[in-house]
Amino acid sequence: MSMMSKSDMKELLGERAAMVEDFLRSCLNDIAAPPRLKEAMLYSLLAGGKRLRPVLCLTCASMCGGAVEIVLPFACAIEMIHTYSLIHDDLPAMDNDDLRRGKPSNHKAFDEATAILAGDALLTDSFAVMCRTRVSADRLVRAMATIASAAGAAGMAGGQQMDMEHTGGPPITFESLQRMHAMKTGALIRASCVCGAVLAGGDEIVLKAVDDFAAAFGMAFQITDDILDITSDTTTLGKPVRSDVDKGKNTYPFLLGLERSREFAHEQVAASKAALSDFSGKDAEFLSALAAHIIHRTF
What we know:
By secondary structure, this protein is mainly alpha-helical.
């Protein structure tokens, strides 16, 4: 498999992120909600960001023979779930962060109760948006079950619980750190990729390869996040830096040191690219180039 150039990768990333952005602007139009609640939902949903998860969903669907236009509602619903998790993670009872994507966190722009409800509504309404995906019922139900598991107690919610329990305490084991981040961050990234393949009709062999790619990709993404918390600045990152260190969070640099963390990230990128070895075409090249790029990002 040839490697897509960095400029071509960024161009395709921008094209698919723009598709997501356009859909997100109108996805709540038909939902009747109190104006302040809808304003809070859109405040965070349209605050920018890489749109990485929906782009991964669209790309994996396309790589497996699906049409991105058909999968678009499902992919954007994943971004709604991701946005809900950010709103709740920023709350005083969780990570207590006042800045997100360079803007006041939702609970600072509105209030804590409205932020909680905005997160609740985004999570719940996301499943209604998924139902707009015009694929066979068996594919849609399997994909929805996959996303529900990734967002629930075995995924993001459980990973956040582990994170809170271990914050400020003694260092956890490397294995526990991997499990925590595989749940908190990795589960939704993996589900985004796998759901794209499921919606496109990929067989079990294809789904296994996509999942292997996504698991390693998600790990590299989280390690880089941990590194950026130390090496970046607030303006570039769009949120407070060194907040993980200040709160006593368990991170890869805290446990392994900065250089070993960087090496581990490179190992995960190599593993993610190896998982794509049986795929060919523009989408596989894009995913491989994106994996190589992810550890060199600055935000």
